[in-house]
């Protein structure tokens, strides 16, 4: 897939990206080899045949297992951990200009903060361009019709989400970053809520995974729903429990369904037990990601 990376708006992200470019060291970059360390070590040896992953229930981890099989990467292992642990490992390696391979996805603030690239995926293990969907429990439209309509209307662009993600990454509290975006984008919020009656304290439960993208979207929608009179509870879980919660009704909805590839297993497993409320963002992507200074361009190169 030929993915065109977007800048996350004209504010903090643009300044951040320019600052990073200005601080680059061309001399060090010129010294990089496949291993990132100035020698002839293969990329596999340079990273101990390790791909740094995230939580084991994430769809991107299933896709990575598929990639290892598709590309016959018999020596390789994928480590598990949180998204925060993955980005901490990335920062440590990047600051030292060491090689690292991670499971990555866009939108994510790391593409603004670090100079990164996706490895080409000629076998299509990670699928093509994806979408983020909003899903709801069966019966949501009848029980909470106003919320159902707002959630169905919810749609925003990568640069919108990026503004919230970067603000949080730079130290802003999640709720403050979300509110600042809402205050700056009243017309977009109005597209979600116009013509919908407010309610009086109706309860709604939203489940989300601890990806920076989903933290941003759920905090924004939480505040929008609260302004419409809802009592909103956010629950952070892994992908499997998220889909289970929506399917069994213990959660009302989630804005974190990545389809058709990342969460394909869950969508198939719970077919008929949830409602797809619509696409909130197009053009998202998952795959293996490395720093630009690494002399490697394709997952196929990992066999060398």
Automatic annotation (TrEMBL):
GO terms for biological process: choline transport; glycine betaine transport. Keywords: Cell membrane, Membrane, Signal, Transport. Pfam families: OpuAC. Residues 43-183, 203-303 form the ABC-type glycine betaine transport system substrate-binding domain. One of its GO terms (molecular function) is carnitine transmembrane transporter activity. GO terms for cellular component: ATP-binding cassette (ABC) transporter complex. Gene3D superfamilies: Dipeptide-binding Protein, Domain 3, Glycine betaine-binding periplasmic protein, domain 2. Residues 1-21 form the signal peptide. InterPro entries: ABC_Gly_betaine_transp_sub-bd. It is found in: Cell membrane. Its main location: membrane. PANTHER family: GLYCINE BETAINE/PROLINE BETAINE TRANSPORT SYSTEM PERMEASE PROTEIN PROW (PTHR47737), GLYCINE BETAINE_PROLINE BETAINE TRANSPORT SYSTEM PERMEASE PROTEIN PROW (PTHR47737:SF1). This is Glycine betaine-binding protein OpuAC. It comes from Sporosarcina luteola.
């Amino acid at each position: 897939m030929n993915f065109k990376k977007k800048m996350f708006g004209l504010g903090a992200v643009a300044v951040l990206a320019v600052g990073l470019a200005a601080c680059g060291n061309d001399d060090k970059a010129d010294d990089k080899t496949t291993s990132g360390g100035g020698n002839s070590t293969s990329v596999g040896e340079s990273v101990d045949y390790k791909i740094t992953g995230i939580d084991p229930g994430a769809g991107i981890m299933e896709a990575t297992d598929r990639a290892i099989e598709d590309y016959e990467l018999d020596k390789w292992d994928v480590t598990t951990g949180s998204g925060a642990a993955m980005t901490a490992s990335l920062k440590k390696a990047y600051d030292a200009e060491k090689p690292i391979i991670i499971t990555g996805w866009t939108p994510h603030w790391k593409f603004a903060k670090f100079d990164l690239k996706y490895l080409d995926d000629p076998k299509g293990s990670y699928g093509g361009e994806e979408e983020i969907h909003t899903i709801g429990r069966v019966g949501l439209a009848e029980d909470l019709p106003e919320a159902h309509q707002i959630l169905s209307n919810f749609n925003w662009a990568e640069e919108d989400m990026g503004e919230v993600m970067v603000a949080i990454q730079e130290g802003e509290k999640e709720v403050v970053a979300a509110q600042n975006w809402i205050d700056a984008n009243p017309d977009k919020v109005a597209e979600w809520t116009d013509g919908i009656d407010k309610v009086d304290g109706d309860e709604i439960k939203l489940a989300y995974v601890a990806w920076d993208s989903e933290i941003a979207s759920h905090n924004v929608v939480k505040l929008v729903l609260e302004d419409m009179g809802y009592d909103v509870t956010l629950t952070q879980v892994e992908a499997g429990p998220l889909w289970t919660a929506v399917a069994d009704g213990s959660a009302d909805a989630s804005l974190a369904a990545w389809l058709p590839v990342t969460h394909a297993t869950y969508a198939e497993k719970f077919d008929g037990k949830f409602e797809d409320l619509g696409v909130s963002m197009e053009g998202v992507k998952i795959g293996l990601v490395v720093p630009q200074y690494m002399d490697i361009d394709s997952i196929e190169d990992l066999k060398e």
